[in-house]
Known about the structure:
By secondary structure, the chain is of the alpha/beta class. The protein has four helices and seven strands; from the N terminus they run αβαβββαβββα. It has one domain: 3-Layer(aba) Sandwich (Aminopeptidase), CATH 3.40.630.10.
Amino acid sequence: MNQKTYAEVIVKLAKQWKVPVERVDKSKLKNYQLLNAVSQGSEHDSELLIFTLKPKKTKAKAATAVVGKGLCYDSGGLIGKQDHMKSMKEDMAGSASVLATVLNLVKGGYDVKQTTYFLLPLAENMMGQNAMRADDLYTTGDGKQVEIAHTDAEGRLVLADAICYAKRILKT
Length: 172
Ligand SMILES: [Zn+2]
């Protein structure tokens, strides 16, 4: 499963569970260079999916966000994992945990205390002609510059930009 097919599965599940989900349009992700960089070696672009649960009873103004990374495959990128690559399809477990949390909240009929956004940034860290390189510079969604020191440290890139995105939606 890659980030594209995973995103399609999530949209399908959301329909089944009757929970709205946003598969964020690529045009809205242009400034999230860290998230995009991780999939540069992959055939498919990175994805960001967001579930929103609103409280049924209270009208709390505060909101919160939960983020889980979804690395559909982590080859380690150009620097590589060499013989440690087996089972790296499991690097999407964080996003799977967030997905399961949404399912359990919905199926269990639980209410949330405040509006809660569940962000699932999906990517695939592959080797390829366009893959990110050590020494590359990218800008986060909130304007910080990041230098790539090791191409296998992609999880924090994906999480950092998802947190930037969460910050933006929490402000609105
Ligand atoms: Zn890695």
